[in-house]
Each structure stands twice: as structure tokens, then as C-alpha cells.
């Protein structure tokens, strides 16, 4: 039997064709030609075209209820008439090929100008309700696995809209496994009070028994806190918010998320910026939160945690996440470690995460001071006795690491150290270096 490209496994053939289709020299009309080669090529092209659905919601604040215009990024270089018409035609195609959609991205952006010559007469539609839009969309995606909601505009979505949007996502996408929320959150006592009022209208008993509830495996929270001031107060008279002012979204998560959804989460990313911790160490409790674990986010199956250590994020984490959630974590990834000194990092690991076996540190030696690897010896011997592997994104060489750790520690504790270059496709803003070093312990 002669070996041809059609004899390759579907997974490998999909990777090859994805690379070809992603090429800039590959024009859209060529996709139709490739799909007409055979049935296998057609099915693979369909998977490529409809596996990811990226939707832009252009905000139109001049309309009531902060309405949005729906477009797709792939048509951003076209005229406004063609962009709107093609977006809605493509959305209908996504609905008809809904079983292929695995990733859905919703991102709000500044409203685009709708003026044109001649006046626009195409299928222009205004979305006054994002939850209703999701209700008309997500049920057509029975195999949806990943969903990302991004709203980082200076004026965020209204509180009731965001609450209803999240609950709609959880109740209309039963196959959803990974949810990412990247949001700008207003912080004030007024927004907290308003959120509590809207949370009272959420169903509690019926939602828990809903068979369509999503059972998540991972949750990513990337929140930027913005103080909310009354419009009648001049800018020069505005007082910075108190660090004890509650954060309405974090306080609302235990109510918004059903316990059935939270009980299956094994991975959590907790990143909060814009918070200044209190200067007084005794003033650690945020007003509006409770030391009772039942009022905090409880993730009983949590195994992996990604935690930022900037802008007081470690101070917020125990305020809003129950200790029942992270006492059994086996893997911990700490971002932007250069903001912490060793004396601050070690107590954090000792008091909160004594059972971790794998630790990843990012951006640890990208500032003026080089990394002193001797802290690993103290970290292993005195703090984390169960630690088996440390991965650090660093430019330090293996001889430098070995010399800093010392021959005694290397002989008694370290199994091996290896250094590898991070592939370009895997590099992110949080890496801090093109290299990563992995230290494996013998016991």
C-alpha cells in the first residue's frame, strides 16, 4: 500500500493542515478548494474553521442598558458594512456547525463607528442583553470545553448584567470544563451593597439541581480593581479606597457559582491587581467578609494553584478563598516573584501550602539583583519537606545553580538539575526568561 497524506492519522493530518491554513499566503478562497478534495479534508477544514469562536462586543454606551454590536475579529479589516454582514452570517455558520466549537471567546471593546456612505442597510443588530445573546448561542455548542469572558474597559459591565452573564454561562454550557474571567471590577462600598441586592434574586435551590450545570475543571480569575467615585466629586478631592473595602465580585462568587460546579475544580488561577494591602498588620480582615469558610469560595478538589504575589494578592486570597480549598494543593505556581524578597516568600509557603510537591516560580531574577539559589536549600530542608520538583524561569546556568546550592546539599538532596530553552510558542509575558531550570529532589 502506497503511503499518502490521506493515510495519516486524523490528529496528525489536522495539525499539518492547520499549519497550512494558518499561513498568511493561504487565502480564504483556498479553504473551500481544500475542503472539496475529499470527505476527510472537508471534516478537518470544518474543525479548523469552527473550533474557535471569537466574538467582539463593541460597546455602544449611547444606547440604553449599555448595548453592544456583535462582530468577529477575522473581519476587522473590512468595511463596516461587510464586517457586520459577514459577522452575522458567520455566527449562523457557527450555530450550524456547533458540535465543532470547542473554544468560545467573548471580549468587550470600544464601540465602532456605524456611520457609512451610503447608509448601512445590512443585518445590523444591537445586543441589549448579553445573557440573552448567550442563551441563543451556547446551546448550539454541545461540546464546548473552554470559554473566556474579557471585559477590561474603564467602564465595566453593570453588576446585574455580569452576574446574569456568568450564571447563564454555567447553566447553558453543560460540557464546559475551563472558564476564564478577565474583568475590570469597581471597588466601593456602594458596589458591594448593590451586588448583595442583586444576589438575593438569584435562585438557590433550583440551580443546584439543574442537570445542565457545568462541572468545571479549571477556573481563571484575572481581576483588576478600580475605585468607584461619585460623579459629583472632583478628581482632586477623591480619596483612595480603603484596603478593607470589600470586592463585590470576589464576595459574590460563592453565590454565583453553584456548589456542583465548584466541587469539580482542580485548577485555580487567582490574579488580582489594583489592591493595596493595609499598612497595619493587625488590620487584615476586609469589611464585608467573614472568617467563616462557608461564606468563602470553597474548592474541595483543588490540586493546582496559580497565585500572583503583586499588589496585595496574597493578602486577598485567604480573605475570599476557604482554607479547605488550598490545604491539600500539590502544585503551586507563583507569578512575578521578583516583587517579593526571600523572607516574604518563605513564610507564605510554610503557613499556607505545606503539602505541595511541585513549585513553579516565574520572573524571579529579571530585576537588578541576580537570583541566589542557596534559598532552595533552606526551602527544601526547613520549609517544604514534601517538595519533589522546582521549576524556575531563569537565565542562570546549571554550574551557577550547582555552585550556589553547594556540594553537600547536591549530594544529599538533589537528584538532578537540567536547563531547557522555552519554545517560542510557549513563551508568555510571565516567563521572564527564555530559559527554565528544573530541580528534582532525591527525596
UniProtKB/TrEMBL annotation:
<dbReference type="InterPro" id="IPR001810">
    <property type="entry name" value="F-box_dom"/>
</dbReference>
<dbReference type="InterPro" id="IPR036047">
    <property type="entry name" value="F-box-like_dom_sf"/>
</dbReference>
<feature type="domain" description="F-box">
    <location>
        <begin position="2"/>
        <end position="60"/>
    </location>
</feature>
<protein>
    <recommendedName>
        <fullName>F-box domain-containing protein</fullName>
    </recommendedName>
</protein>
<dbReference type="Pfam" id="PF12937">
    <property type="entry name" value="F-box-like"/>
</dbReference>
Amino acid at each position: 500500500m502506497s503511503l499518502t497524506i490521506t493515510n495519516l492519522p486524523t490528529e496528525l493530518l489536522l495539525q499539518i493542515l492547520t499549519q497550512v491554513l494558518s499561513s498568511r499566503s493561504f487565502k480564504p478562497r483556498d479553504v473551500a478548494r481544500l475542503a472539496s478534495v475529499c470527505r476527510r479534508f472537508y471534516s478537518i477544514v470544518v474543525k479548523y474553521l469552527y473550533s474557535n469562536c471569537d466574538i467582539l462586543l463593541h460597546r455602544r454606551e449611547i444606547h440604553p442598558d449599555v448595548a453592544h454590536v456583535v462582530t468577529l475579529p477575522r473581519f476587522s479589516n473590512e468595511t463596516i458594512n461587510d464586517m457586520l454582514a459577514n459577522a452575522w452570517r458567520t455566527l449562523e455558520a457557527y450555530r450550524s456547525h456547533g458540535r465543532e466549537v470547542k473554544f468560545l471567546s467573548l471580549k468587550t471593546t470600544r464601540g465602532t463607528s456605524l456611520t457609512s456612505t451610503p447608509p448601512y442597510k445590512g443585518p445590523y443588530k444591537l445586543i441589549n442583553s448579553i445573557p440573552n445573546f448567550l442563551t441563543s448561542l451556547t446551546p448550539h455548542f454541545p461540546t464546548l470545553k473552554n470559554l473566556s469572558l474579557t471585559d477590561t474597559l474603564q467602564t465595566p459591565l453593570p453588576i446585574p448584567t455580569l452576574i446574569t452573564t456568568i450564571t447563564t454561562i454555567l447553566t447553558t454550557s453543560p460540557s464546559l470544563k475551563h472558564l476564564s474571567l478577565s474583568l475590570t471590577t469597581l471597588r466601593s462600598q456602594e458596589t458591594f451593597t448593590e451586588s448583595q441586592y442583586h444576589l438575593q434574586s438569584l435562585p438557590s435551590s433550583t440551580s443546584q439541581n439543574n442537570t445542565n450545570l457545568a462541572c468545571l475543571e479549571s477556573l481563571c480569575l484575572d481581576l483588576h480593581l478600580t475605585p468607584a467615585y461619585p460623579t459629583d466629586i472632583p478628581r482632586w478631592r477623591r480619596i483612595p479606597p480603603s484596603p478593607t473595602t470589600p470586592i463585590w465580585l470576589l464576595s459574590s462568587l460563592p453565590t454565583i457559582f453553584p456548589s456542583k460546579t465548584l466541587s469539580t475544580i482542580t485548577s485555580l488561577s487567582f490574579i488580582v491587581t489594583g489592591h493595596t494591602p493595609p499598612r497595619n498588620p493587625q488590620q487584615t480582615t476586609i469589611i464585608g467578609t467573614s472568617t467563616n469558610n462557608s461564606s468563602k469560595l470553597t474548592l474541595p478538589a483543588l490540586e493546582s494553584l496559580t497565585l500572583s504575589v503583586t499588589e496585595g494578592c496574597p493578602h486577598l486570597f485567604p480573605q475570599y478563598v476557604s482554607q479547605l480549598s488550598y490545604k491539600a494543593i500539590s502544585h503551586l505556581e507563583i507569578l512575578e516573584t521578583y516583587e517579593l524578597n526571600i523572607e516574604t516568600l518563605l513564610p507564605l509557603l510554610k503557613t499556607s501550602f505545606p503539602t505541595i510537591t511541585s513549585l513553579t516560580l516565574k520572573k524571579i531574577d529579571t530585576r537588578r539583583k541576580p537570583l541566589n539559589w542557596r534559598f532552595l536549600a533552606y526551602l527544601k530542608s526547613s520549609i517544604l519537606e514534601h517538595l519533589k520538583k522546582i521549576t524556575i524561569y531563569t537565565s542562570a546556568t546549571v554550574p551557577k545553580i550547582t555552585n550556589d546550592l553547594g556540594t553537600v546539599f547536591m549530594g544529599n538532596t538533589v537528584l538532578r538539575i537540567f536547563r531547557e530553552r522555552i519554545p517560542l510558542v510557549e513563551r508568555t509575558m510571565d516567563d521572564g526568561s527564555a530559559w527554565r531550570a528544573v530541580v528534582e529532589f532525591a527525596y
